[in-house]
Amino acid sequence: MQSKFWTRIRKKYMDLKLSTKILTFYSGVLLISVVLSTLIYQNVYNSTMSKKVSEVSVQTLYSISSNILSMIENAKNLSKVVISSDEIQQPLNQISQNPFQNDYTEYQNIMNTYISRFIEAFPFISSIYIYDSASQRYGIDKMHLKTLKISDISMADWYGSAVEAKGGFILRLNAGGIYEDTDNGENYISLIRIINDIYTQEPLGVLIMNITESSFVNSYADILNKYKTDIMILDEEGHTVVDFRNDQPTDIINSLLYSENEDGSNSKVGDIDGRKYLVSLLKMQKYNWSIISSMPFDELSKESAIFNITAISIIVLNAALMFMGSVAISRMIATPIKKLLEAMKGVEHGDFKKVEIDAGDDEIGSLRDAYNIMIMEIQNLIEKVVAEEKIKRKAELDVLQAQIKPHFLYNTFDSISSLALSGKSDQVYKVMKSLGSYYRVSLSKGSEVITVAEEIDVVRNYMAIQQVRYGDIFTMHYDIDEAATKYKILKLILQPLVENALYHGIKPKGEHGNIYIRCKQLEDHIELIVEDDGVGVNKETIAMILDNRYSVDSKSSFGLRGTIERLRIFYGIKDPVSIKSEPGCGTTVTIRIPVERREQYAS
Fold first, then answer.
1. E strands, 68-213, where?
2. In order of start, what are the domains of the chain with their CATH numbers?
3. Rounded to whole angstroms, what are the CA distances from 217 to 7, 241, 291, 438?
4. Side-chain-side CA neighbours of residue 58 (13 Å)
5. pTM for this entry
6. In Å, how far are 32, 203, 210, 333, 336 from 329, measured between CA atoms?
7. What span, in angstroms and rounded, lies between the C-alpha atoms of 185 and 389?
């Protein structure tokens, strides 16, 4: 079924005009080229875009990490200033020396006044708390003063770690949970360090400096807004310091936390509500925090829109150029052939004009030159015939010559067109070569007579063309008397008979056939025989052909009737041809040319 379908498609394609065929072919090539180019570009673009998004995402995390580290570094430096100041050291030393005193009001005023300066000067600090050796609280909070859930500050889970830091600091989310929840659920980061005597390094108390979650977010807000990135920050224990603003794929986040690269970064792609996101992770090695970002692909693709437009424009431009090129090539090939066909149709109606085609020294140029030579030869022949004594017979010969040659040429061009459309370039060359040989012999520099040998060559060249076109549909057989080949005869008398045998004898038969060419010299004439084993004809048809009772417009046995009439006019013989045939038994056409009438030999 598929084979029949493609056969029908191929036939329809072959039936198209040459220009349409070329245009269709190149359009198909153009379509394939555009599709492949688009797919390749899309693949490269997606790969490049994924790489770019990943690089930008990791770079964003590094920028955020840098901002966070800078803020923590500022808080650390501020804490050093606080714990080393006399306003803090002296009260804590006195309390340490007399821990059981009951009045802390003076110390409270001194330390709180000092701390308030930093609270006002540094907006990212939300509160600063100091606890002495008796767990007495001092400090300032922008929100509400926080109340310990434990009776002694040394009972905090992180206290041992703070002592082990030996004057350094530790970071904990929400001060490690030592306060009652009074901040409406807002997280804060607590910088915690032990306050030591600057001279003896003995512990005097604890400093807790709190930085709100919003302060962290504000430090990198500009970075987030640029690509609409969403951020989550986890502390070293995996607690959320800053959470995502929107829902994110937790499965991807969990997998990133356990599969980072050597540099502490990693990236994966996930879909959120049908939108593609790149989720990236960066470990802050200094504090063992994790920063996770979620960045939409399409935000970066907006920046690449100009490249997409440029690439698409290039593809469209190339497609347009290829299409215009195919149209130009189609016209370059089809236009000259169309002019040739129009000229040939004019010849069929008696309009002998040379064709003017702008072509180089190629096959089309050779066809043009051969056609123009043929037209010139026909015109010369007409002039000679007009100059003959018998005006009527000259006029008849003129009309027949004007019909028989275009008829053959049209069929030959039909063969060439069929081969060209089938892509058989080698056979096209063979046909063109045979066609050139045919014209060289048949034109004969304007002479109306050629030798029998040359006439046989004309037939051989013609049948070589038909053999290429029809393949194994027929086999040629030649039985030539060499003694007869030296005589000159009217040219192009065998070719129409062989053509008639092929088209009206062998082809309708529907199976392989044979065509025989025989030539022999008898006492007073030369006998030329064309025989085939085709379908044959009935006696009534033979009588109509020999009596020339077919209408002028009838195309049946046109070549045979024309040849008989030419022989009658040229040799002045009433019955130069005899025909024997029966339906289903083939046909034999015999031509007898008197030697006495034309006994010139080939020079």
1. 125-132, 137-141, 169-173, 188-196, 203-212
2. 85-216 (3.30.450.20), 349-594 (3.30.565.10)
3. 70, 10, 12, 93
4. 14
5. 0.45
6. 19, 95, 79, 6, 12
7. 127
Q: H-type helices in 258-390, by residue range?
A: 297-303, 305-348, 363-386
Question: For the purposes of burial, counting CB atoms within 10 Å of the CB of 165, is it exposed (0-12), middle (13-18) or buried (19 or more)?
Answer: middle
First to last CA, the chain: 63
431, pLDDT greater than 60: yes
Distance separating alpha carbons of residues 192 and 161, to the nearest angstrom: 10
* 517 three-class SS: strand
* Distance, CA of 293 to CA of 291 (rounded, Å): 7
Going by C-alpha positions, the residue among 537, 536, 535, 463 that lies closest to residue 494 is: 463
Convert the pLDDT of each residue in 519-543 to its tens digit. 999 888 899 999 999 999 988 888 8
Written as six digits, the tokens of 524 are 């007073």
Q: How far is CA 579 from CA 124, 168, 501, 537, 552, in A?
A: 120, 126, 12, 10, 21
User: Quick check: helix, strand or coil at residue 173?
Assistant: strand
Which residue type sits at 230?
Answer: D
- 206-210, 291-295, 439-443: least confidently modelled range: 439-443
Contact criterion met (CB below 8 Å) for 300 and 227: yes
Tell me how far apart the alpha carbons of residues 16 and 22 are, in angstroms, rounded to a whole number. Answer: 9
Question: What gap in Å lies between CA 322 and CA 314, rounded to an integer?
Answer: 12
Q: Return d(Cα 85, Cα 372) in angstroms, integer.
A: 115
Q: What residues pair up with 148 in beta bridges, in sequence order?
A: 179
DSSP 116: H
Taking each helix axis as running N to C, give the angle between helix 105-121 and helix 18-84, from 0 to 180 degrees, rounded to the nearest 10.
150
Q: What is the model's pLDDT at position 225?
A: 67
Task: For residue 265, give the DSSP letter.
Answer: E
CA distance 450 to 448: 7
- Phi-psi region for residue 290, left (φ > 0), alpha (ψ -120 to 50) or beta? beta
Cα 362 to Cα 329, 367, 368, distances in angstroms: 15, 9, 10
Average pLDDT over residues 346-371: 72
Do residues 348 and 410 make contact, with C-beta atoms less than 8 angstroms apart?
yes
Sheet containing 525-532: which strands, arranged edge to edge? Answer: 474-480, 513-521, 525-532, 587-594, 577-581
Reported as type and span, the H/E element at residue 277 is strand 275-284
Q: Coil, helix or strand for 292?
A: strand
Structure letter (DSSP) for residue 491: S
Out of 48-52, 129-133, 261-265, give the one with best mean pLDDT. 129-133
Number of neighbouring beta carbons within 10 Å of residue 289: 20
**Closest C-alpha among 574, 508, 526 to residue 547:** 574
Burial label for 119, CB within 10 Å (0-12, 13-18, 19+), is middle
**Helices (H), strands (E): how many in the chain?**
17, 17
DSSP 362-377: SHHHHHHHHHHHHHHH
Which of 25-44 are b and which e, b meaning 16 or more Cβ less than 10 Å from the residue's Cβ? ebeeebeeeeeeeeeeeeee
The more confidently predicted of residues 159 and 573 is 159
